[in-house]
Prior knowledge:
The chain is built from 15 helices and eight strands. The protein is of the alpha/beta class and 392 residues long.
Amino acid sequence: MDMSGGNQMDVQRSDFGLRLKTCMDKYGPLCVGIDPHRKILTDWGYNVDAEGAELFSMRMLQAAHGRAAAVKFQTPMFERYGSKGFAALERVLYAARQMGIITIVDCLHGGLSTTISAIADAYFKPGAPLLADAITLLPYYGARSLSGLIDEALDNGRGVFIASLTSNEEGASLQTAIRQSGDYKGRTVAYGIASTAQKHNEGIEGMGSVGLIIGATIGQWISDSGVDPAQFTGPILSPGYGWQGAEAKDLKTVFKGTKGNVLVTVSRFIAAHGPDIAMLSQATESIALDVRQALLEATEEPSDETPSGIVSMPKKATETATPLTFAATGESAAASSGAADAVPDVDDPTESAPQTDESASVPAPAVRSSFDPSKTTGDSAPAAASSKEPRQ
Length: 392
Ligand SMILES: O=c1ccn([C@@H]2O[C@H](COP(=O)(O)O)[C@@H](O)[C@H]2O)c(=O)[nH]1
């Protein structure tokens, strides 16, 4: 272990990064997103209620098992059913833990540090009702407001993913805005967030446990942000592939020069192939292969690093002429974000998803993977889901 950069306590603090990397090396860089949208539940023949969400989740888990490094549950999709929805989320998280798959809860939390300290009881501490390997955080109360909660995550062997460059285009103007004061004056909001996150990973050998969310759709504005994913040593959770329009070439652009720390999360693009478990499993496998290949090629691409080891300066931030490295020193607050899907949402009856496959009963993916349903040979997944799924 390289102990030169950090102290021993940091190195030993959380094994989340190590556990995730081990799973990514074994199963590849796919995270199966489990988002029980109303329309998908209907199209799968389930009730639009907590039980339907649970059955859907169990089936997505089956498809993910042995084919993906991680699963990600989208909290609002359960929260809408109140206590029954949270009970369902507790049970599917339990099932995922029993399967040994890494669990991420996309709970999108953020707020005053004193308030969000309660989140540790919900997700990180032994016996927590929603025990998860990692959760997602929104840093718009100032990334340093998350420090206490991050400490709790690390002390409990868990991790976090902090939204830095989200996949929706509405996020771009806020996240690429230039900071007016503080340690990152003259840098972008996203840059300060990424640098603050990187600080937690310094001195850790291998992949850290404090991650970022960087959308696969952001190729057009990543250079404005000043963030170079290739310099980040924690895990990067990347949504946007498939349904939101990002393709393999976008993964290669955004994540060029990265070193095996990008976890691509895909939800509707996989769910669109259900409810048949063989089709779901085949789609998961195929998408996992496509994503793995794209990221392998991205690794071979040189990043924007200059020979002197600094990142090329984005145009908007050049006035301050400070080298853009992840030498994090602190962070100042920015405004709050209201992220919304940039693409048709299957929950919104006013929007319709792009249809490219007339045979699909759910809205078809915006782009097709190399998955060919006609080549389905069977299912190697565990036994099919039923309403008698494991309960805690
Ligand atoms: O920037 C972000 C952050 C989170 N998400 C979430 O990821 C999934 C994506 O679902 P798809 O169906 O694969 O598009 C969903 O839960 C989002 O809330 C994101 O898309 N972008």
